[in-house]
Amino acid sequence: MxxxxxxxxxxxxxxxxxxALREVxxxxxxxxxxxxxxxSGSGKSTLLNILGGLDTASSGxxxxxxxxxxxADDAALTRYRREHVGFVxxxxxxxxxxxxxxxxxxVTEIARNPMPPEDALRMVGLGERLNHFxxxxxxxxxxxxxxxxxxAKRPDLLLCDEPTGALDSxxxxxxxxxxxRIHAELGTSTVLITHNAVIxxxxxxxxxxxxxxxxxxxxxxxxxxxxxxxx
Length: 231
Fold this sequence. Notes:
The protein is α/β, with parallel strands linked by helices. It contains six helices and ten strands, in the order βββαββαβαααβαβββ. The strands form two sheets. The protein has a six-stranded mixed β-sheet. Strands 2-1-4-5 form a four-stranded antiparallel β-sheet, covered by helices on one side.
């Protein structure tokens, strides 16, 4: 589904080169749930942004299926994001003047084969909250609206950057259960960034990052359901 070879990213800060990624190799298989685990500054978000077409690498190559992303122009990356990738970030980025339903409709209006926005919200357990504004929703509910918005276009890839980072543990479990349900029902390949080692237990595979590198990986023999996680 997704492949990276020797990806590196260097930022220039004054006279100093900051190496955010250092020759990362990665493969993501269809319908796989992978957790990128590591502390802040380890390169997790930089890697996710490059794989999602939000950023470009300084060197190395990346492919989505048979299409190379590395040298794609802005128009091609925009098509890639619009047609194939759903993003969920730590902060919900909802439009406060729009209802939950209207926030999701923004995506379905530009997608090629969207699901009805009502169905996307029902998948994350918000079928009774369609007409509520963000200010009328809890943090966990707002994050689930953001997930519904991400999956309403039926993406091949769901990329989640610290989706529980701004939530308490109980609310975070509800968000992880929504991601888990979507992964199972839609067969979406999912990458979830976290610094919380407990969350890694729900993944098929865990990639541990440090200093811009994948330092090691492990495959979970069995995945723990999100509802069984405690932290």
